[in-house]
Amino acid sequence: EKIKADTEELTKPLYEMSAAMYKEQEAAEAEQTEPNTGEKIVDAEYKVVDDEKK
Predict the structure, then answer these.
(1) What is the dihedral of CA 8, 9, 15, 21, to 10 degrees?
(2) Cα separations (Å) of 35 from 11, 32, 38, 39, 53?
(3) Domain housing 13
(4) What is the number of structural domains in the chain?
(5) Residue 10 covered by a domain
(6) What is the sign, positive or negative, of the torsion defined by CA atoms of 15, 18, 23, 26?
(7) DSSP tag of 39
(8) 47: in domain
(9) What is the pTM for the complete model shown?
(10) pLDDT tens digit string along 26-51?
């Protein structure tokens, strides 16, 4: 029972710290988002060709 209580005591600050770090990272990513520059981005499909098979 003592181990469980100690584990919970150590885990709670870890969760709080992780949540704070996540919020900071999320805010930093939001600041780095660039506005649309008018460039058109297209997803393309491709096929890998093995040059060694001849």
Answers:
(1) -160
(2) 39, 9, 9, 11, 45
(3) 1-32
(4) 1
(5) yes
(6) negative
(7) P
(8) no
(9) 0.43
(10) 887 776 666 666 677 778 888 888 77
